[in-house]
């Protein structure tokens, strides 16, 4: 695993939210 990067964490959270929105029925 790479070093801990806060930016990556935020990006991952944003991606997770986008993925959930897409699952709800909103295309990316």
TrEMBL record:
Location of the region described as Disordered in the Swiss-Prot/TrEMBL record: 1-28
The protein in question is named Mitochondrial import inner membrane translocase subunit Tim9 isoform d
């Amino acid at each position: 695993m790479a070093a801990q990067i806060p930016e990556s964490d935020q990006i991952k959270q944003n991606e997770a939210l986008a993925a959930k929105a897409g699952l709800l029925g909103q295309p990316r």
